[in-house]
């Protein structure tokens, strides 16, 4: 089986000298968190995948 490619973004902001990261709770566990990411569709670039998944999963 060939490896599956995935792409995502690490989104952060600095609020009063404290860095905050955007993490999404996974569907498979209460204590599992991940940045927005997803599988790369055929013919799609990693960058386009990362942007699409961020919009789909986080609404950004």
Automatic annotation (TrEMBL):
One Pfam family here: NUDIX
Gene3D superfamilies: Nucleoside Triphosphate Pyrophosphohydrolase (3.90.79.10)
BP GO terms, sorted: AMP biosynthetic process; ATP biosynthetic process
Keywords, alphabetical: Hydrolase
Ranges of residues in domain Nudix hydrolase: 2-60
PROSITE patterns in alphabetical order: NUDIX (PS51462), NUDIX_BOX (PS00893)
InterPro entries: NUDIX_hydrolase-like_dom_sf, NUDIX_hydrolase_CS, NUDIX_hydrolase_dom, Nudix_hydrolase_domain
One MF term in the entry's GO annotations: bis(5'-nucleosyl)-tetraphosphatase (asymmetrical) activity
Name assigned to this protein: Diadenosine tetraphosphatase
Protein's organism: Operophtera brumata (Winter moth)
Lineage of the organism: Eukaryota, Metazoa, Ecdysozoa, Arthropoda, Hexapoda
């Amino acid at each position: 089986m060939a490896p599956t490619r995935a792409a995502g973004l690490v989104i952060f902001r600095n609020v009063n000298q404290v860095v905050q990261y955007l993490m999404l709770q996974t569907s498979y566990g209460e204590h599992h968190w991940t940045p927005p990411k997803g599988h790369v569709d055929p013919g799609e670039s990693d960058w386009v995948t990362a942007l699409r998944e961020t919009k789909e999963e986080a609404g950004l």
